[in-house]
């Protein structure tokens, strides 16, 4: 009986909805970005797409950088 309970709990925990992915599956939709991430675009659910800076396109001279809010010309 304990085995059945443990199995049920494990399966329920595995079904927890993972964070939505964005930016070609390199970012995650969150309300606030973690310290090692930057906001790049908005997600469909109006959350921020938080991406590691190493996955962002190169900045151009016309890029506008204001703190953690970055706008890139692609």
From TrEMBL:
Gene Ontology CC terms, in alphabetical order: extracellular region
Keyword Secreted: yes
Region forming the signal peptide: 1-19
Limits of the Beta-defensin domain: 21-50
Superkingdom in the source lineage: Eukaryota
Annotated compartments: Secreted
Key word Calcium present: no
Gene Ontology biological process: defense response to bacterium; innate immune response
Chain segments annotated as transmembrane: none
InterPro entries membership: Beta-defensin (IPR050544), Beta_defensin_dom (IPR025933)
UniProt KW keywords: Antibiotic, Antimicrobial, Defensin, Disulfide bond, Secreted, Signal
Family assignment from sequence similarity: Belongs to the beta-defensin family.
Function description: Has antibacterial activity.
Record PANTHER family: BETA-DEFENSIN 121, BETA-DEFENSIN 123-RELATED
Name assigned to this protein: Beta-defensin
Lineage start: Eukaryota, Metazoa, Chordata, Craniata, Vertebrata
């Amino acid at each position: 009986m304990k085995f059945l309970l443990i199995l049920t709990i494990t399966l329920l925990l595995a079904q927890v909805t993972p964070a939505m992915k964005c930016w070609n599956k390199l970012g995650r939709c969150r309300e606030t970005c973690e310290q090692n991430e930057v906001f790049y675009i908005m997600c469909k659910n109006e959350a921020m797409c938080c991406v590691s800076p190493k996955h962002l396109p190169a900045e151009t001279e016309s890029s506008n950088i204001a703190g953690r809010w970055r706008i890139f010309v692609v």
